[in-house]
Amino acid sequence: MKKAKAVVAVLMASTMMLSMTGCGNSGADSGNAGTAADNAADTSAADNTASADTSAQADGAEASGATASSSDLNIMLETPVESLDPQQATDGTSFEVIADFTDGLMQMDADGQAVEAIAESYDVSEDGLTYTFHIRSDAVWSNGAPVTANDFVFAWQRAVDPAVASEYAYMLSDIGQIKNAAEIIAGEMDKSELGATAVDDSTLQVELNVPVSYFLSLMYFPTFYPVNEEFFNSCADTFATSPDTLLSNGAFIMDSYEPATTTFHLTKNADYYNADSVQLAGLNYQVIQDSQQALMSYQTGALDTTLVNGEQVDQVKDDPEFLTIGAGYLWYVSPNIAAVPELANLNVRMALTTAINREAITNDVLKDGSLPTYTAVPMQFAAGPDGSDYSADQSRYSDVCVYDAAKAAEYWSAGLEELGVSELTVDIVVDADDAPQKVAQVLKEQWETTLPGLTVNLVVEPKKQRVEDMQSGNFQLGLTRWGPDYADPMTYLGMWITDNSNNYGLWSNADYDAIIDECTTGDLCTDAEGRWARLYDAEKIVMDEAVIFPLYTQCNAEMLSSKVTGIEFHPVALNRVYKNAVKTE
Amino acid sequence: MGKYTLKRVITALFTLLAILLVLFILMQLMPGSPFNDEKLNADQRAALYTKYGLDQPVTVQFFKYVGNMLRGDLGVSYNISKNTPISQLIKTRLPISISIGGYAVLIGAVLGLLLGLVAALKHNTIWDSLATVISVIGVSVPSYVFALALSYNFGFKLGWFPMLFSPNDIFKSSVLPSISLSMFTMASIARFTRSEMLEVLGSDYMLLAESKGISGFALIFRHALRNALIPIITVLAPLIVDLMTGSLVVEKIFAIPGVGSLLVNAIQSNDYNVVISLSFIYSAMYIIIMLVVDILYGIIDPRIRLAKKGGD
User: Fold this and answer.
1) B132 burial class (0-12, 13-18, 19+ CB within 10 angstroms)?
2) Which residue has the higher pLDDT, A245 or B11?
3) Per-residue confidence (pLDDT) for residue A435, from 0 to 100
4) Is residue B68 over pLDDT 90?
5) Is the distance from CB of A411 to CB of A351 less than 8 angstroms?
6) DSSP state of A70
7) Phi, psi of A64 (to 5 degrees)
């Protein structure tokens, strides 16, 4: 017995020693540098196995050399799913999982364009105010019931029902402009008055207040996904909390799930109308909040894809399986223009924004592939009528937003003179998370070195408190971010109109408001090209006036196994789509 | 004894009610609110407050909550798992935390007792020093360091145990987290056992027992250890509650779906109902364990039992 204890003791001690020396080791080295691709979307792989076998799921279809595997894709999530109820979910993780087992009227193709899904076809009236969707006849729920127009009407009425209090109700009212949505949300009308009606089982008619150029792209947003009324009522309050209370009309079926769980699994849906194109046998999700454990699990092969945090990037950046993927978020500094007299001074604001070395932030601090950004609308999420990225040209506002220490110092002394002071102290409020704190630290350093007489204090707060402070105007500078809700620049430009709740600095400009009006409800609604050009005029005002100081467009660093192709990454709505993915052995 | 126990139970119930009230007040003082997402406008926020009854005065909320709780309804989650009844959230998670914590207590207590006994019996030898070194390491090194070390070596390098918790193999995936959690318990128990045993072994009645011819096992276990157990149980009781309510960091490292990580996520997202329910359950467990300890004292030490009888 004594011996046994001695063994235990020695074991403990050696375990500790091992760990002290072991953790510093980095992963695989590969001489193949510079393969950090911007985009891993590769759909062609999904099509090359279109052989005639419609039956078997299990036996691999041998096609063009590679054997399509019938195994599960093992996916890492950073946070647990908050809700699988399409009208209640608000976070990217939940959206991504809901889309695994639910199809909307439209879906995203590999490039993020809206293409038909449950809708077989659609008509748009000449005035752009009426959309008619024709629902495909082979779309069924996993309990055998057909997917009908009423499933959409029921779901959309839930979304605007004040009793349901869906946080994304504004997608139907402010953004989708569906008739009567705003009035129903405000409690002035009954939900049955919503401008979405089932003409018959396979025809859904939607009426809008004004033409909405991006309306079709909203149809892949989960808030617009259908819910079967009869099934919903049979679940009562437990809807979407277990496999028994979930219905699928999509590529996969949830077969093990508990609320806020750390592991769950989906299996291929054999009754999916497009089941032939689904190659994976299932999806195996694992929530891992510890990034070191996640990376190690990936290295053992237990995961096919995982997120990598900024500190781990150096360890894996030369690995050919490392990629950075656009996440859509714009990080920016919002000055409180209305309440802080010093920040109401344009020269001071110009000094602050031109003193920021954005490259240094992305290359030296974040290192996750995030893109330095010099426009008020971030890159890579909104494509114009000609298909090009709205913010591809980052030099558009280079006369007012560029790193130039000399110019910044000039603005600064001019600003101080106008204010009649020789030094300034400014507070910047930041989230108590890792990345924002690091970024703010660098901002402070850059500002204080370039602008003599400036003292910057960091105010670090839990995110919830920071948001509350900014909403109530109780801040001077704030570091914040905004993710796009739909693939149109308006998801950003709409924020800076007078009295918008996210216009934290309470900036107001009548010309700007007029342009935004013109583009949302006015003459330009139906003129795609004209509207696009006019949006640049609006953005120019924001940049000229330094209403915000854009910093960077966020990217996520990820590892993706070389066995896996065809995962589609999007910065809007559905960040990752797996139904066209292929995993080879 | 019966009257004494009844009195203790009633006090415990009032303590719990007081704790609940304090929790309610603390929630109001927490920074932020559950529904201040940037994407919500004022009307929507108001609608959400109305939906969950947060627009009512705190006192009304409190009495409603107590009423619902008596009927077994702990409310629903606002954020971390929207609209899911808390009882459903806890039902699957608490057993996992309790079992992992239970294993940890078991491993820690048994190993700690043995280690302490060896150290005391082999006083001033190499075994004593070794036991002391292990205790010092166990007390001073945080459990997540053990967790990372174990996971790296036995999970990642050797592949003996899963690195992450798997519901398909609960026993195997509980091994590493339980061992990491047991270290502190083992070390504290070892330290206490050692010092208590040394004290007891040096006492007069041990000399008497030995002179009566009692020897070996009987001497140590019946006479020495039994007397040394009282302070050890006092130390063990809070450790049990601590371990059974889940460890935040160890749960995070091993991706265990326990209540520790649930509480932290809930606090970060101002999910009031979850925070209140879990804190309340912790308090209740603590109070119950303390009651059990009081009763155990009486069983182990007749002096306490008799003194109480006399006192009644």
Assistant:
1) middle
2) A245
3) 87
4) no
5) yes
6) -
7) 40, 55
Q: d(Cα A206, Cα A153) in Å, to the nearest integer? A: 9
| Helices assigned H by DSSP within B37-169 | 42-51, 58-70, 86-121, 126-140, 143-150
CB atoms within 10 A of CB B165: 24
Q: From CA B169, how far away is CA B149, in angstroms rounded?
A: 21
Q: Which member of B37, B134, B154 has the closest CB to residue A9?
A: B134
| C-alpha–C-alpha distance, residues A35 and A319, integer Å | 8
Q: Does B31 touch chain A (CB under 8 A)?
A: yes
Amino acid sitting at position A251 = A
State residue B250's pLDDT score: 87
Q: What is the pLDDT of residues B77-96, one digit of tens each?
A: 888 888 888 888 888 888 88
Q: What is the DSSP letter of B221?
A: I
- Tokens representing A19 are 């760990």
In this predicted model, what pLDDT tens digit does every residue of A447-470 receive, in sequence order? 999 999 999 999 998 888 888 889
Give B33 to chain A, closest Cα distance, Å.
7
The mean pLDDT value for B240-266 works out to 84
* Calpha distance A348→A411 (Å, rounded): 7
| Comparison of pLDDT for A219 and B11, the residue scoring more | A219
**The pLDDT of residue B1:** 57
Residues 436-475 of A with CB under 8 A from B: 461-465, 467-468, 471
Whether B145 contacts chain A with CB within 8 A? yes
Pairing assessment for the beta strands A477-482 and A424-431 based on DSSP bridges: parallel
Q: Which of A232, A231, A271, A265 is nearest to A251 (CA)?
A: A271
Single-letter amino acid, residue B37: D
Q: Over pLDDT 70: what percentage of chain B?
A: 95
* Chain A residues in contact with B36 (beta carbon < 8 A): 464, 467-468, 471
Segments in chain A below pLDDT 50:
1-69
Between chains, do A300 and B156 touch, taking CB under 8 Å as contact? yes
| CB of A32 less than 8 A from some CB of B | no
Residue of B nearest to A25 (CA): B152
**pLDDT score recorded for residue A423:** 92
Interface test with A, best of B36, B78, B275 (most A CBs within 10 A): B36
